[in-house]
Amino acid sequence: MNIFKKINEQKQKDIELPIDPNELFYSLKKEKEYSYLRGIQEEALTIWHSKRNNNNLLLKMNTGAGKTLVGLLILYSKMIETKKRSIFLCADKQLVNQVFEQSKKYNIPTCCIGNDNEFPEDFLNNKSILITTVHKLFNGKNIFDKYKIEVESIVIDDAHKCIEKVQESFTIKIPREHKMYEALLNLFSAELKRQAPGSYEAIKTEQPDYYMKLPFWSWIDNKESVIKIFSNYLGELDTLLFKWDLFHNNYNQYELYIKGSQIEISPIKCFTQNIITYSNAKYKYALSATFENDSDLLYDLDFSLDAINNPIEPKDRKDYGQRLILTPQRYFQGFGVDNIKEIVDHHLKNSENVLVLVPSYREARLWEDIGATIINENIENEIDNLKNSKGNFVVLANRYDGIDLGGDSCNVLIIHEHPKYKFIKDRYYETILHKTNTNIIAQTIEQGLGRTVRSGNDYSVIYLLGKNILRFLRYKENFKYLNKHTRKQIEIGLDLLTQGKEEEELTSEQFNDLICETADYCLSQDDHWLVTYQNFMNETENDNLDLNREEILEIKDLEKKAILEFINGKIQKSLDLIQKILNKNISSPERAIYTTLYSNIAYLIDKNLSNDMIIKARDFSRHTFDPFLSQEFAKKQLKFDNQISKSLKYLQSFSTLNDAIHSINETINDLRFDPNNPSEKFEAAIKSLGKILGFTSFRPEKEKNEGCDNLWLMENNTCLIMESKSEKLHQNLICKDNIGQIMNSINWFNEKYLNDNIIYYGVTVQYNKRKERDVVLNERLRSIDNTSLEKIKSSLLKFTDFLSKNQLNNLSEQQIKAEFNSYNFLSEQFVSTYLTKII
Fold it and tell me: Nearest to residue 53, comparing CAs of 285, 216, 343?
């Protein structure tokens, strides 16, 4: 009997399986409920099969459309065809387990690395796909390169999440408590202090909101000293062990970023050629949700430009299900914890499962206080509980992927805030570009939405909450970072709430009723809802929200090639490629970044050229470095824009009129003299006030650690150089120190800018306009005191009332000018009305 069994097994092995992935699927022995592919999966596999000889391919499918099975079939097909090894990369161990369990349902041969850290024989002998974490491959001590494992095909699942893990693998993080932190701070203290003394002192005293990038010349010139500091810690598991081999042969293209709690040393680009198994793999496939920005995949994982520009993206089959996305804070400014409690209670009374996604356990505990259960261990068990019971209220911290909750397992999803920056580097570039954070929030929303609605017949209500998400949604420019389905689903929620909200202001209770009634409209699967939803989703988008994707990718591809030439020591070739970017029509912030990069690369062959480029970079952004040679700067010419057109453009940058009004109301609320009102809030509100009024508005001290708190460029060549004392007590008079600070800021202004024909005022913004007896004044000094500030706020409230009676797209410059004239907001009027003499 055993002989016949062996013969049958041998015959089974001799059967040639098809390499067409669709045919392959139907040839597999599997359980009955898993016997069919969905149409979108069949289409994706058909397109892939027609391109199977392409070395790089990006596959983009809606969340819940079955990407993982498609990826497994792709790898199985390649393994049969090439008879060579394949690996399936996941972001973490939990996802490895999920993919492994899914593969078994379809009888796809897979295996995992066990606790012994040994490769399974079936993988080594090309009999099964290895499922493992991205970190297992991307680290300086990876066992693939150690044992010289050759791999033919790689699938990267949830590619955007995996890219984060890859970037982390290449980044050295040194906590404040470590001896290396103090040694590196001491080594670079002189240069850091020279660049920004205020930020340097804040970092030394561990103030959390300050961070700096070390100038590249200081990093390059101190290579031997840095290596010596590191040499005593090369075997440390938590800092250098898995990073060192990726770092030390590639030192010059690394950069140092520092904040009070941590130093990060990260590469300009992840040099994946250091991971031999990955670099030599012939076929690489990335699986992704339909995110709009794929530049990191091209840049850090070395996918080709053609693969990113021409992804496999099955046609829209209307299988995205029904998501009603509600943003209550956009409609009810007083929306708070009490409203949330009532809304959650409503859903729980209806036996609906409520899942909350938050960025950290600190936020999770806030939800715990109102009745949610924090899931921090045994996630699989808790997810099973959601799938098998109703009326649950749970919160997950920093988990926006890998949780699949279709059907009744998650009727209501709440996304509250978004994760903070993963790296200090992201914060630094956000300061210059104002794009990094936008992209992070967009991806957080998209990933979070993917936890619920896993099929075309599925439906749920999603609430987007939190100040940062609210700010993101207010500006229509940000919607281009979201895919078209998400944009439409947000619009549906806006449209329903707009229709439901009557002209008069709703009470808190009435607003809760409106929200719950709107949510029930979807969750009850009302016939009118089904028709309304489908009609809305079928409408063509009116707004032009082009992300300029091809242009962004082309620039990123040039940058990637330039860095690779830089790493390989071909400096002039690298500079030529960066120059191609600078020859394009890019924004000033982008020009500042690429001019600085040019300077960085040029430093190795021509220090004078490098210094000249650093000086040039400062023309494009205030956030770039002071040069390392000459300190001679040409004074900058100030640009004075038309006040009314600038104000109108700012107002029309909001998604809705409601968003503009709420933003102005927030500014009004933060413009108050109060010891409990932080100066950060007050100065940010002064900047926002300037933008509302159509002035060019800066925060020089915050943005470049030099100069005054706030600077406004008004019409008629008028500048206000402002220092704020919002936390002063009401009885405090203007003292010598206050005036001294203003005079220092005026001197800074005169040194920095050409001031021919410019009228400028030094303005102290504080409660009292009265001075102490020994204070000496000049004709350039003014005050904005509490009386003036209250008048400004009162006029702003009237302006919001005017806005509420109009439509955003129909506002004209003539209307704005007439309103500003009535409030004395026009430049000359503002100076004569709201700037008072110090007495």
Answer: 285
- Cα distances (Å, whole numbers) of residue 104 to 25, 33, 107, 685: 13, 13, 5, 57
How far, CA to CA in Å, does 173 sit from each of 236, 242, 263, 789?
12, 12, 6, 45
What per-residue confidence (pLDDT) applies to 2?
Answer: 56
Q: Note the pTM of the prediction, 2 decimals.
A: 0.84
Q: Which CA distances in Å does 158 have to 13, 95, 225, 415, 534? A: 33, 10, 40, 20, 28
Q: Packing angle between helix 527-538 and helix 484-500, nearest 10 degrees?
A: 130
Crossing angle of helices 179-195 and 223-230, rounded to 10°: 160
Task: Please name the residue that has the structure tokens 């956009």.
Answer: 330
Q: Which residues lie below 8 Å from residue 729, measured CB to CB, with a gap of 6+? A: 675, 767
DSSP 335-366: --HHHHHHHHHHHHHTT--EEEEESSHHHHHH
SS3 helix, strand, coil % of the chain, rounded to 5? 50, 15, 35
pLDDT tens per residue, range 69-101: 999 999 999 999 999 999 999 999 989 999 999
What digits encode the pLDDT tens for the residues 800-815? 999 988 888 889 999 9
Q: Position 190: which residue type?
A: A
Query: For 352-468, where are the E strands, in sequence order?
Result: 354-358, 373-375, 393-397, 412-416, 459-465
**Collapsed DSSP state (helix, strand, coil) of residue 603:** coil
Whole-number percent of the chain with pLDDT over 90: 67
Cα(633)–Cα(513) distance, integer angstroms: 61
CB 152 within 8 A of CB 84: yes
**C-alpha dist (Å) from residue 139 to 54, 134, 251:** 27, 9, 16
Q: Is 110 a residue whose pLDDT tops 90? A: yes
Instruction: Name 649's Cβ contacts closer than 8 Å, sequence gap at least 6.
Output: none
* Residue in the block written with tokens 């109060």: 674
| Cα dihedral sign, 426-427-433-437 | positive
Quick check: 474 and 667 in contact, CB under 8 A?
no
pLDDT at 200: 93
CB 589 within 8 A of CB 433: yes
What single-letter DSSP state applies at residue 312? Answer: B
pLDDT tens digits, one per residue of 330-363? 888 788 999 999 999 999 999 999 999 999 988 9
Cα gap 164→167, rounded to integer Å: 5
Alpha carbon distances (Å) from 707 to 687, 691, 721 = 15, 19, 9
Strand duo 354-358 + 412-416: pairing: parallel
Are 68 and 289 in contact, with CB atoms under 8 Å apart? no
